[in-house]
Amino acid sequence: MEKVVPIRDSIYLDFLSKFGVGGAHPGGFELTKEILQGERIHAGTRILDAGCGTGQTAAYLASTYEARVIGVDINPIMVEKAKQRMEKNNLPVKIIQGSIEKLPLKGGMFDLILSESVLSFVNKPRALQEIYRLLKPGGRFIANELTVNKKPEEWVENEIKTFYGFDSLPVERDWISLLERIGFKNIKIHSQTTPILQHQATPEFHYSAHIDPKLYAVMNQHFQMIAKYHEILDYRIFSCSK
Ligand SMILES: C[S@@+](CC[C@H](N)C(=O)[O-])C[C@H]1O[C@@H](n2cnc3c(N)ncnc32)[C@H](O)[C@@H]1O
């Protein structure tokens, strides 16, 4: 029997899904749009939004570029909210529930795959291997991912990992080594210089009908965590090719 990839235990991800946070990555939607401008995207470009959340980026790609987009997310609440967005806006974006560590999709399907703050929540080598398999030769991969500026003390590392549900806190070199090991070429880092603390763009919300009261505190905890560890927590935008 196929092994199902479990959802990582993360109070932060529970909060994001119940509040239906769109643009849940450093820089938010504005940074997404800026980065996409640097890619060759046109009508018919096949794109996978890996860990699409409520589908904000996937919808934008379909409506602005007329790209052929698939969004995948492991969380059923996110999937439902992303589907509602596509229906409401009459967009032909296919949303599937699944894990980017193993997807029931043919290899070599996509011109571009995006991962906006998703790899930190998964088994990174497995997800990157799967992303590599799904890309066409020459296809592009862009990831906006949490990166630490220096390895923190163990207790700080544990506090961050427990709150977010991360299994590791990579520095820039760790990400590059991993991408190289999988076989990605032409690895570049977007020259974004705004620190994570100043890069908290206003997100969008699609609230669930019932929200556990303890989740209201989680958003504050997230901002406190970023403020407290602003010298450690950072992010990088990596782009590379298969
Ligand atoms: C920080 S949110 C980012 C969502 C979206 N990319 C955005 O920027 O708004 C992380 C997303 O990754 C999803 N996720 C976590 N593990 C996943 C997995 N194994 N496969 C697919 N999606 C996953 C979560 O459900 C969540 O929607």
UniProtKB/TrEMBL annotation:
Keywords for the protein's UniProt record, in alphabetical order: Methyltransferase, Transferase
Protein's UniProt keywords contain Transferase: yes
Protein's UniProt keywords contain Secreted: no
Start and end residues of each Methyltransferase type domain: 48-142
Pathway membership, UniProt: Lipid metabolism; Phospholipid metabolism
InterPro entries in alphabetical order: Methyltransf_11, SAM-dependent_MTases_sf
Gene Ontology BP annotations: methylation
Pfam families reported for this sequence: Methyltransf_11
The organism's place on the tree of life at top rank: Bacteria
GO molecular function list: S-adenosylmethionine-dependent methyltransferase activity
PANTHER family for the chain: PHOSPHOETHANOLAMINE METHYLTRANSFERASE, PHOSPHOETHANOLAMINE METHYLTRANSFERASE ISOFORM X1
Protein name, entry field: Class I SAM-dependent methyltransferase
Gene source species: Neobacillus notoginsengisoli
